[in-house]
Amino acid sequence: MSDLNDFHEMFSDDAVMQYWSTPPHTELSQTEEDLGNMVHSSWNGKCDFVLEYSPSSGTSKVIGKLGLWDGHEIGFMLNRDFWGKGLMKEAMHQFFRDLWISEDMQALQDVVADVDPRNSACIFLLKKFGFKEAGYRVRTWETHLGWCDSLDLVLKRPAKLQE
Question: What pTM, to 2 d.p., does this model score?
Fold first, then answer.
């Protein structure tokens, strides 16, 4: 797991993990376990991907992840050093383009998101891709922030796919 330290940089960052379902990691072993679960998931490579930055001057670095949890619910994170540069928007554009044409995902009719309503940046980004509000649930997750509500969003499979 050569990318372990890059992942740990994200998973131990309070700001990156603020709205994640688990608190920031305090031990490298926590990240190693999560990374192992991701690598061995049946969804790995189908709809769960690592975002890598490769500068022309040197070594590549894992800067995020993007994918569908359980093949249906979107989740993503980005290293704080790369926020505000449009990189997640660019990654999501490619992700959805590939997702809808994937042979493995032909039965998928929609993608859902369970978002903490305080996470305005996430909601804004998802709505840019056509996600619509589908519901609001109170006290759905107890996390390191306390009890959190859920804003449910849904993106329907496009009727016509753009090339």
Answer: 0.89
